[in-house]
Amino acid sequence: xxxxxxxxxxxxxxxxxxxxxxxxxxxxxxxxxxxxxxxxxxxxxxxxxxxxxxxxxxxxxxxxxxxxxxxxxxxxxxxxxxxxxxxxxxxxxxxxxxxxxxxxxxxxxxxxxxxxxxxxxxxxxxxxxxxxxxxxxxxxxxxxxxxxxxxxxxxxxxxxxxxx
Length: 164
Known about the structure:
Blueprint: H1 2-9, H2 11-22, H3 30-42, H4 48-82, H5 86-101, H6 105-110, H7 116-119, H8 121-126, H9 131-155, H10 157-163
Helix pairs in contact: 2-3, 2-4, 3-9, 3-10, 4-9
């Protein structure tokens, strides 16, 4: 079914899936999605380079949604979503310290770490990181992550398809 949708909508579907994955919606695990996109691209006439560029753009856009909610909604939204969880507050504190210590580079590094890479938008918004820093450092980290995983699917598509 997904293959039929992909053949019908191509890169539009890829962009939508990546956008939702970076909004951290359940059911969109990057470790499965990104290599699968690479396999689909390899089996089509679509461009790997264009796909990676679009994946970065839509990854940043999805991240900006979470960042914006936290930037403008702040603590009240986080309390509604996570309650007064000390574990979550501790995570936000540590992420804030790491991002500040690295002068923004920490955000790009966090984008390369599974799980942390999508939720790091939350503390970035809560600490009101300047949007230009958020976009540029996020784009750098997202580019590395997406390019690696999509390329694995693309270059090893035959082997991956044989496994499926």
